[in-house]
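Hey, I'm writing a tutorial for new members on how sequence and structure tokens pair up, and I'd like a real worked example in the thread rather than a made-up one. If someone can provide the structure for the chain below, I'll link this post from the tutorial.
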Amino acid sequence: MTADPLSADLHAAPRPYREVTDSNGRVYRVGETDRDILGHSRKLMVYLPWIAMMAISVFEYAYGSAEDTLSHAHGWTQSNTFWILSVWVFFQAGIAFPAGWLREKGVLTARRAMYAGSGLCLVGFLALSHLDDVWLAILGFGVVGGIGAGLVYATCINMVGKWFPERRGARTGFVNGGFAYGSLPFIFIFNYAFDTENYHRVLDLIGVYVMIVVFASAFFFKDPPKNWWPADIDPLSFSGDSKNARSLAKNPPAVRQFTPKEAIRTGMLPLMWISIVMTAGVSIFGISFQVDFAKEVGFGPLVAASSMGVMAVINGIGRGVVGWLSDHWGRKTTLVFVIVVLGLAQFGVIWAGDVRSEWLFLFFAFLSGFGGGAFYPMFAALTPDYFGENYNATNYGLVYSGKLVSGLFGGGLGSMVVGAWGYNGAYALAGGVSMVAAALALLLRQPGRTAGGEPVPAAKPHPAT
């Protein structure tokens, strides 16, 4: 007997979601809860990326504390060690766009990206541990390790942005913060328990630690469906949870889903790219040179290590705080505030060094750490706010790729400026660059909306002649 198609259709399970369209033509997929898709709360998509980000933070934020020992152990110059980090930054940031493109094409899942990243991170530390030739170390740690850390970083940031479209500031800031303060134990290990006798063992163990943590976190990674929106928030009126409604009023969702080409044509994505080039360059400069500057001024190793520890902790905590703050103030206002603080901190470090005040130095290290990390989650949240979630992995990959340029002048070229102008001249230049970046950030606006936040009316057709 042939089954009746109509009868089969009537008895089929109803679709667990529906799609609604707002006045701008943007589609929202509503009706499915996070538990319907994941089998558990989406909060796990905050905590697991956070743990993985803490693991890979040792690459960037603790490296400056290991440079002296690495130079003596391998026979490298100070310039060699700075360029190794610069190449790492270049590839860590540069992989974000191609990885995002592959993810959105369905070639690379979030889980596979994390698995690959965990193995490449291990290779990076093994290279730093066992390769004396500086070019091989650049290839192993800078290129391979940079790609591995970049895969993990980009996947974690995009994961939380996609799962929390209605209140992404605080969550993105929290996850992003792990990338800084997760390095704190390693900063003190490298300053107090890392020498030419044990460096092989220490670096090998750190590489294994990073691989295990990232690999284990990746097991539960899963992206939401395209256009997914939380079931308890009405995307047309933003009614529902009052906290989420307030955040959406300050940071309305993108008027539609912009492809990378469309996002570039708005002019806002290129402006964000230039802003992150300048701001990240100042941040990387501070990470690379703060310990060395403290030692040159005459501060003891405890102050030098503590200043970097303060920077890492406040860098991370600051990301979470400004993420929460941006849900109340608005992303753009918070971003400008953060960049100005970063610029003022550079001049403050000069002052603290001139007057030989350890307390002032630690205070401005506090401010520099706050400003030098807090802008990252702002750009990470602004990108889907402006261009939507469907192409966020690619769009944010383009924005974040600005950091690959920053790595060159923040680390390698920064060392040349220090050699030519001294620390005071280099820090003064960094402060000036920050102020220019803040001025550029003032020009940002959400595509398709007026200055008051209302959607731009569709153009009316011209009457026939």
